[in-house]
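Sequence, please.
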């Protein structure tokens, strides 16, 4: 939370009203508008004095082309931390969200969640997939496709299925593939993927004679089949084009930088991972993300998980001038519904 001197009741109400009006109208807010909408019995002169004090605190700014004022990043921070009142998503919307959050495996559920976040917020929905260390092996099957290509059907503990086509350095006959699959399934079910790869290498070094050949084949196949997805597959993004019509970020160069960040994903993923162990919703406003392309947007995030274990983070990326009282409950509700869906599987 931003460190600012304590604001009295009138200052808080005027700041709340000004930011709410600016979010609604998209224009600088003048003292006369605040007199009409704040519910306070104060004169325009008194309002102007209070606004000047808030500007001195760095909570407001005065655009050169207008007599009104707009909130700064610090102003928005005070607003979301101490002035905003959010209500939970209505029950009928929550039920609809749960019914539309569908998928036969975890990956499809994550994709549905990103699409729903975008549709319900009208901005960009992002979901960080579970980190590799949380992926636990259940069983695997290998299907030969041709001389040096094998289809690996990998089933994880959460019920998700990953189909991967493996390009191998040498051919494997069907009996060898079956033997390796049986060995992996019998010895490594219930272990994280990364641990399996490490353990196989360690066992290979210690192996003798008859086990050496099988372990060598197991290591080669496991290196391909059990390697976690690259960073680009670790972040699901939906609705990027919704930002193209947003007034606050209509500058072509800003949009180009933002879309490059969406394309590369790694930087956004790192911001999301900073909130993995946050309690509830966490909000990054503008430059608080530490990423230049995101200086004109806000990122509202929340963790999701299974049985008390945090698996990943989801959120909404939208303009700083967003309807926080709507977006925050949407993010909270989607995180809760996704957690329930993954647990229920």
């Amino acid at each position: 939370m931003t460190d600012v001197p304590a604001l009295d009741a009138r200052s808080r109400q005027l700041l709340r009203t000004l930011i709410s009006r600016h979010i609604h109208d998209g224009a600088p807010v003048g003292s006369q508008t605040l007199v009409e909408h704040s519910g306070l019995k104060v004169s325009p002169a008194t309002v102007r004095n209070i606004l000047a004090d808030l500007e001195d605190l760095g909570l407001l700014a005065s655009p050169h082309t207008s007599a009104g004022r707009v909130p700064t990043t610090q102003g928005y921070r005070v607003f979301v931390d101490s002035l905003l009142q959010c209500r939970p998503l209505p029950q009928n919307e929550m039920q609809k969200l749960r019914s539309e959050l569908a998928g036969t495996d975890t990956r499809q559920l994550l994709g549905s969640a990103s699409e729903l976040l975008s549709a319900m917020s009208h901005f960009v929905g992002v979901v960080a997939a579970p980190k590799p260390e949380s992926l636990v092996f259940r069983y695997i099957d290998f299907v030969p496709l041709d001389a040096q290509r094998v289809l690996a059907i990998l089933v994880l503990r959460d019920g998700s299925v990953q189909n991967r086509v493996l390009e191998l350095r040498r051919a494997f006959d069907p009996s060898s593939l079956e033997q390796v699959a049986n060995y992996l399934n019998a010895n490594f079910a219930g272990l994280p993927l990364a641990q399996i790869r490490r353990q196989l290498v360690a066992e290979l070094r210690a192996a003798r004679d008859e086990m050496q050949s099988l372990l060598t084949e197991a290591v080669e196949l496991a290196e391909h089949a059990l390697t976690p997805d690259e960073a680009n597959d670790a972040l699901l993004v939906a609705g990027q084009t919704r930002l193209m019509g947003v007034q606050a970020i209509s500058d072509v160069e800003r949009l180009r930088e933002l879309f490059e960040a969406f394309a590369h994903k790694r930087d956004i993923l790192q911001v999301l991972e900073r909130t993995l162990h946050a309690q509830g919703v966490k909000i990054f406003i503008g430059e608080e993300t530490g990423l230049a392309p995101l200086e004109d947007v806000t990122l509202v995030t929340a963790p999701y998980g299974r049985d008390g274990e945090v698996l990943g983070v989801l959120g909404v990326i939208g303009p700083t001038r967003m309807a926080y009282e709507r977006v925050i409950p949407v993010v909270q509700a989607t995180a809760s519904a996704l957690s329930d869906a993954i647990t229920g599987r």
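Residues 324-344 form the longest helix (21 residues).
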